[in-house]
Design brief:
401 residues, alpha+beta, 3-stranded antiparallel β-sheet, 49% helix, globular
Length: 401
């Protein structure tokens, strides 16, 4: 009988991990780093309970993957032990490439999407584990013949979305984000190598899409989060411009001093080695180190982030006019003593864009009672989910309000 490790999760209860490569990967420093990467970036500024990490999320997504594979096997889908292990490894490691504060600093320290960094780290782990991740990488890259395994990892109804909606709503306390993940998983099946949902789960899918839409506007795109993100990215831009390296960790110093040579074309082993040294702690240490800086702009931003004195962000249904932003920037220069470039960093107009369901990309298919596969868009009215909703924002110091 296989030995298993039990992990107590506040969302699902006990998560079982068999001894072997899965547990070895969890214990690896690359994965343990995820304990120090916040799942929701700076959202704990708004929702105090939102302090969960990518480590929590990866384990949760893995747990849901095991449930989905069990369901498919019960319905007669043939899966080898190697395929199940490969799918579990792929979902367990799917967020390995996230940097500090997850999406907040994506492309800021290193101009590469986290998905590409994840793949590079998985390939490095594959070397360390003697090729045991070959199948997982094939699934992750959608190169494995059984396409539905990739869809469980990355699609419009994958285990990633199932967990982050469930987990984020739990930790933020936003009950509108709760989904019936158990019922949706139980209603999954595979037809013609395609992951499908049974027709009787339609209302659960509609609830899933509704929850995702609400969570984006209420949590992921909250105006206080936008404010904190603008402040943090502005602070890092200023630090990189001034080549400030005092009190920085080894990883942060590397990216500050080598920013010109780091590009998205060639991610070297040296870059990866320094990337995995980074986590939220490095950023907070950096913020705390400049709070007493003689540079009034850096001190202003650091103090604001640490003491929650944020920029004012206004959400609008129309695009702010260019001269409106220019006037606010001029006022900022005159009243707060910032330079024009500094004013440009924090007084910004931007776009918030959200579409809950993409009909042109890997549609969810419904297995109807007549055994015909029907795109979800032909069964449900998805107008409110597929419509690309645009909102606009403008940020400025509260002192200028």
């Amino acid at each position: 009988m296989a030995r298993i490790k039990i992990i107590n999760d506040p969302v699902y209860g006990f998560i079982s991990v068999p001894y072997g490569i899965l547990l070895e990967l969890i214990d690896h420093p690359y994965f343990q780093r995820l304990r120090r990467i916040s799942q929701l970036g700076l959202s704990s500024i708004i929702y105090p309970g939102a302090t969960h990490t990518r480590f929590h999320h990866a384990l949760g997504a893995y747990h849901l993957m095991t449930k989905a594979l069990q369901t498919l096997e019960m319905k007669g889908v043939e899966l080898s032990s190697e395929e199940k292990e490969g799918a579990c490894i792929a979902i367990l490691l799917h967020d390995l490439g996230h940097g500090p504060f997850s999406h907040v600093l994506e492309n800021i320290l290193i101009p590469v999407e986290h998905e590409r960094l994840t793949l590079l780290l998985m390939e490095d782990l594959n070397k360390q584990f003697g090729g045991k991740l070959n199948l997982a990488i094939s699934i992750f890259k959608n190169e494995y013949p059984k396409k539905f395994l990739f869809q469980l990892v990355s699609s419009q109804l994958d285990m990633d979305r199932m967990d982050y909606l469930t987990r984020d709503s739990f930790y933020t306390g936003v009950s509108e984000g709760i989904i019936g993940y158990d019922r949706i998983i139980q209603m999954m099946n595979v037809v013609e190598n395609q992951l499908v949902i049974e027709e009787k789960a339609l209302f659960s899918i509609e609830k899933f899409l509704t929850a995702r839409k609400i969570m984006y506007w209420q949590v992921y795109m909250h105006k206080a989060s936008i404010s904190a993100e603008i402040m943090l990215t502005a602070l890092l831009s200023k630090i990189k411009e001034n080549l400030v390296t005092d009190h920085l960790s080894e990883g942060m110093s590397y990216f500050i001093l080598n920013q010109e040579s780091i590009n998205k074309v060639n991610i070297t082993d040296e870059i990866l080695l320094n990337f995995v040294k980074l986590d939220d702690t490095d950023i907070w240490t950096l913020v705390k180190s400049v709070i007493t800086s003689h540079d009034i702009f850096m001190s202003y931003l650091a103090k604001g982030l640490l003491e929650r004195q944020l920029l004012k962000v206004e959400i609008k249904n129309f695009l702010p006019e260019g001269d409106e932003i220019d006037k606010i920037r001029l006022k900022c220069v005159n009243l707060l003593g910032f330079s024009q470039n500094e004013a440009n960093l924090i007084i910004r107009g931007g776009t918030l864009e959200m579409s809950t369901y993409n009909q042109s990309f890997d549609e969810i298919f419904v297995n109807s009672r007549e055994k015909a596969l029907i795109p979800l868009s032909e069964v449900l009215d998805l107008h409110h989910f597929s419509q690309n909703r645009l909102r606009y924002f403008i940020s400025k110091p509260k002192e200028l309000s």
